[in-house]
Automatic annotation (TrEMBL):
Protein name per its UniProtKB record: DUF1211 domain-containing protein
GO molecular function, one term: potassium channel activity
Topology in membrane: Multi-pass membrane protein
Taxonomic lineage: Bacteria, Bacillati, Bacillota, Bacilli, Lactobacillales
Superkingdom, taxonomy of origin: Bacteria
Residues annotated as transmembrane: 28-45, 65-86
Keywords per UniProt: Ion channel, Ion transport, Membrane, Potassium, Potassium channel, Potassium transport, Transmembrane, Transmembrane helix, Transport
Amino acid sequence: MKEYPILCDKIECYKKERGCNPMKKDRLIVLTDAVLAIIMTILILELEKPTTPSLEAFWDLRQNFFACFLSFFWLGSLWMALNTLWEKVEKISSEIIWWNLFLLLERQEFSLENFMPSKIPV
């Protein structure tokens, strides 16, 4: 295996400057924002549409709309809280990356939209 001392030295120097992980904080923030935006978009797109354009048809789907509203608000609150937390983070470690990925997976899997009455099998 060939060694590239100049490249290896630059990587080691970079790791020391960044705190053992060469990932920049901005990349993780962008990933988090993108995943939350996709989850929120899918949440709206999967919302069941009324069969007829009437108030009665909308009223029949009120539980679905309410669950969607709560999930959207909850995800938006999470996004705002994460933006506040990211300002305090100075270095990105592997632990932060893994916890962030776990948080995103959990948010996607357990949004209230998955528990809408129309999605629960009878």
